[in-house]
Predict the 3D structure of the following.
Amino acid sequence: MLIPAAAPGAGARGTGAPPNAAADELASLSRALRERDTPANFERLAKYEREHENDSAGPVAALALGYRDYTHNRSAEAAAWFARAEQGTLLPDYVLYWEAQNARAQHRPAAALDLLDRLARDYPSSPILPQALEALAGTALELGNAQRARFALEGYAKTPEHPGLLLLRA
């Protein structure tokens, strides 16, 4: 999964990160759902998200729930979770990436392209940028806009380090 795991005890005051106890609980609930994808585990994480919707942990839980629904081909449900995840300050680059992937799954390539452009523009140091640029280039090509794909790939200094990006640029 391309979402950084919430490390137990990772929360710190003043960083926007969930407090330690909340981060530990979020990590535990997320891990339980990943290891055993049951309705009960899904509901536990969804309940946690509702209980923490006004702090930084809730949107991270929403991102995890959105990713889960996305991987289960439930794009409408995933979109709702990703919209909730947008309310947070943690992982905004990952939220944009998964929203874009979900938009592609919903056959909305123009919306996906806009989200991926925003990610590339607003988060140029994001660890997920290479995957985002690959999706951006593929989506631009799907829309018949080779120039936009080429511009994005040539504007990224690390394109030569990523074979998938090099192939798209060629």
User: Anything to note?
Assistant: The first helix runs from residue 20 to 35. The chain has two domains: 18-90, 91-170. Confidence is low (pLDDT under 50) at residues 5-15.
